[in-house]
Predict the 3D structure of the following.
Amino acid sequence: MKFYNFLIRYRFWLGLLSLVLAIVAQFTMDVWTAVMFYTIAFIAILTHFLIGPIRLLQKPIEEGNIDEVNKILKSIWFPGLLIKPVRSSYYTLKANMDMAQQNFASAEQNLKKSVQLGGVNSDMDATNNLQMGMMAMQRGDFKEGEKYVKSAIRVGLPDKDSAAMAYLAMSQIYLRRSQNKAAKDFFNKAKGCKPKSEEIVKQIKEMDKYLSRMPG
């Protein structure tokens, strides 16, 4: 595994080295040795730009090593060349790093790029849409927030806490429109998710008290 990670980390430079060796072999050795080194160089350099070092991010993310994650992300010089699913993951990770540093404007831009590309799977798509919706609502754009939250619900959120958060967001949106019945319907769906997050449970308790006093 360490050797594999070494190859990924230094793939570009190993590719350049192979290119140099190919040129040397072409003029000093046989053509087949040159072809071998040209092939290695082509594969190494191409995969560096199309796939990047995303594989190296798993360990620092699990360890919470933000500096190492940022270092690896910065080593991707041309994210636009990454293949679509890898590029989507790249922008999602960039957005998460931005949010960790409270750079919410940059986080929203990167997350929007990931949403437009489509996630690696439906869980990622739904989570990204929910995050986009919550960000839009935080800056007061409830129309855009509704669009993204509805999209997250439609795709299918990966866990009960996320689903409860989405339904609570929809409940708040309908409350702002004085559509109390719809707000209560979404609130009941949020309660039905039985979330475990203390923050979400607290929000449900507070909204429960508020909605119980409202008609409709």
